[in-house]
Structure formats: C-alpha cells, structure tokens
C-alpha cells in the first residue's frame, strides 16, 4: 500500500444513506474501507454541480475540523497518469468538496477518504456529486436546476430517471429545471439568495419577460408575496368563463402597469361577471399614506 495512503477502518454499507438505490448500483458483498490520503493528492471534481460556496460556512467548518478532525470521509476515485519520472497517482474528488476546502483551510495534511474505482465515468461521478449535494440541500435553486439539466442533456436521463436518483418527485425536478427559463439577472438573484424559490416559480407564470421584470421589481421592493404574484399572473390570463377579448385583457394589463407606475405600488385589476375591482398593494402605513396623497392630489 502506498505511503500516501493509510488504511483506517471499514464502512460497510455507509453510502446507502447517501445514494438512493445503492444496493442496485453496487454489489452487496462489496465492503468499503476508509483511508487517510495526503490532501495535496486530491483534485477537485470538474463536474461538481455546486459552484457557490459560503466562505463563512467553510471557515466555521475548518475550525471544527481543527478541533475534531474530518468526521465524514470524502468520496474519491483513484487516477493514474504517466509522468516524466514514471507513473503518478492522484485522487479525483467525487463528493465532499466543502470538506476538502475546509480541510485545506484548517491546514491538516491528511484527510479520510473512501476510494471508489467503480465510479469511472463522467456521468457516474456527476450523478454521485449531484445526489450528495441535493440530499444535503447544499445547492442553491439555480445550481440544482443546472445539475438536473446537465443530467438530462448530457446523459439522456428523463425527469423520472433523475427523480429516482435524487429521491424526489418528477414534479420537483421539472419545476426546478423550469427556473432556467427566467431572465439571466433574475436567475442570478435567485442564485444569490436575494430572490426566493417561491417568488421565482411564481414569475414563471408570466410568459412575457417584460412583465416578469416589472413584477420582479415590485418583489424586490418588498411589496409582493409569492401568492400575490401568482394571483397577478392568474388575473392576466383570460379564463374559460371570461367574456373579455384578448384586446380587452391587454388593455387591463396596460392599465395595471400605468396605475402601478403612477402610484408607485403594485396594482391588480380583477374582472368579474358584474364588473370588477382594483386591488392596490402596500407594505407599510407610510406607503399607504403616499398612495392616498397621490390619488387625492
């Protein structure tokens, strides 16, 4: 056994709690062992679905690692390559990049790893990295959506296939992927945690990007809940019972926009069989006073 690798102890079926369906993916008789590996021998996973790491969280984890060590092994695969002085061996990370970053920050020379040489394909490594992150809720909504989208496009997996691998429903996977249809700046807001997943999903109900941006501005102003956005989207679409023409519906939407710009708050116009009503949204009593002043003046 290499001087760079020191055997630690057996894990048995430890990964079953991490990867759904692992009994089907790997032989039951397979026993996994944990080894200590030099940290400079481990290279990041180029297919890591998670791109944004909370630096404060990594600092906190590094402090814990200095005190207690790495409590959960990293998952790696062994890679051999020809060098100028013979064959070089390194380990490519499959899962555990946050722990690797924190360990480097903590300055520890060796980390515990599980070496899995059966994950040799790019698809297998991406699947495991995705599963680990999704199971731990470490991905932001856009990273999660991008990971699902890659699995679908690069590895020809259906949404049902993806759902089974990550232990979620097909609807959850489908709704996540739909978030990628939002404008770039709105997606970045969602990626950074400024916009909530619920608000983002509600914005998808507006097929028009201009309307999405308009409503997004109101959301950022703190004036609209996700339910408000859903109601706005619903009211902008003619129902089967509606007697309004498309031209009249467009006129309603233009009136909503013009009134909203004049009053500086979101405005909803609802049509009913007996006429309709106007809903003016406000967040604070001060904002209500300003709206009232603009109407009276």
Automatic annotation (TrEMBL):
Keyword vocabulary terms for this entry: Chromosome partition, DNA-binding
Sequence ranges assigned to domain ParB-like N-terminal in this UniProt record: 35-134
CDD domains associated with the record: SPO0J_N (cd16393)
Gene Ontology terms for molecular function: DNA binding
InterPro entries noted in UniProt: Chromosome_partition/occlusion, HTH_ParB/Spo0J, ParB/RepB/Spo0J, ParB/Sulfiredoxin_sf, ParB_dimer_C, ParB_N
Keyword Mitochondrion included in the entry's annotation: no
Gene Ontology CC, one term: chromosome
Annotated GO biological process: chromosome segregation
Similarity section: Belongs to the ParB family.
Protein name in the entry: ParB-like N-terminal domain-containing protein
């Amino acid at each position: 056994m290499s001087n760079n690798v020191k055997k630690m102890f057996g894990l048995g079926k430890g990964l079953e709690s991490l990867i759904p369906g692992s009994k089907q993916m790997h032989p039951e008789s397979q026993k996994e062992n944990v080894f200590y590996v030099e940290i400079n021998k481990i290279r990041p996973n180029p297919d890591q679905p998670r791109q944004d790491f909370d630096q404060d969280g990594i600092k906190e984890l590094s402090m814990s690692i200095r005190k207690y060590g790495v409590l959960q092994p990293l998952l790696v695969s062994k890679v051999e390559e020809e060098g100028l002085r013979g064959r070089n061996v390194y380990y490519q990370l499959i899962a555990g990049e946050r722990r690797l970053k924190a360990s480097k920050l903590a300055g520890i020379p060796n980390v515990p790893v599980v070496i899995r040489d059966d994950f040799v394909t790019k698809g297998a490594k991406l699947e495991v990295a995705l599963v680990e992150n999704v199971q731990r809720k470490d991905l932001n909504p856009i990273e999660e959506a991008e990971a699902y989208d890659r699995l679908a496009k690069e590895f020809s997996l259906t949404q049902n296939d993806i759902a089974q691998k990550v232990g979620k429903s097909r609807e959850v996977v489908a709704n996540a992927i739909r978030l990628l249809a939002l404008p770039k700046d709105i997606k970045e807001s969602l990626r950074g945690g400024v916009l909530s997943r619920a608000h983002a999903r509600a914005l998808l109900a507006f097929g028009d990007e201009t309307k999405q941006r308009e409503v997004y501005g109101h959301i950022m102003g703190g004036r609209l809940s996700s339910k408000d956005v859903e109601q706005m989207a619903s009211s902008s679409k003619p129902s089967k019972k509606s007697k309004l023409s498309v031209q009249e519906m467009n006129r309603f939407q233009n009136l909503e926009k013009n009134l909203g710009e004049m009053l500086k708050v979101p405005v909803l116009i609802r049509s009913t069989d007996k006429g309709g009503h106007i809903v003016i949204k406000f967040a604070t009593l001060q904002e209500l006073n300003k709206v009232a002043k603009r109407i009276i003046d």
